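INFO  loader      accepted 1 record
INFO  loader      residues=177
INFO  predictor   begin
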Amino acid sequence: MNTLWSNASMKWLLLLPVLITGSVTAQTIYKVVQADGTILYTDTPQEGASQVELQGNTSNVTDSLPTPQVKPQPAKKPTPRYTVTITSPEPEATIRNNQGNITISASTTPAFRGRYRLTFDDQSAKINNAGIFSLTGIERGAHTYHIDIIDNKGKTLASTPSQTLYLHQASALINTN
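INFO  predictor   done
INFO  writer      dumping tokens
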């Protein structure tokens, strides 16, 4: 029986350094601050690394590691919700002008410092920063139009509903003698 006990004792004595070495290497963690400021934890020694001492039960090493600090991202300013309205002419307005001159103007809420785009008879007619459009040489008849406000990339931020105006001109066939 003594031989049995000795063999078992010998096995434990041989395994003891392996168990101790395994637990020591499992507790050695290195902290590395990288060039971009991020922190890396590793079990491999590296240049510029500092050793982190772990305390308590190391069965779950991640419980002992410091929580990485996350830098808060600056909050993006929300894009205001714009409303654009046509201030002149009124919807369904009749304009009398023999030269075919029409002025269309718009305003926004809240105040907008950007570009206004006029679409006249389903064609993009003009873009400007003031919201006032002077058109010349327009033929008589019914015309539809609307105004968009757009950002620097051409994305529409707000639009007016489509409106109609009627341009009347004196007929060239009328004898003025």
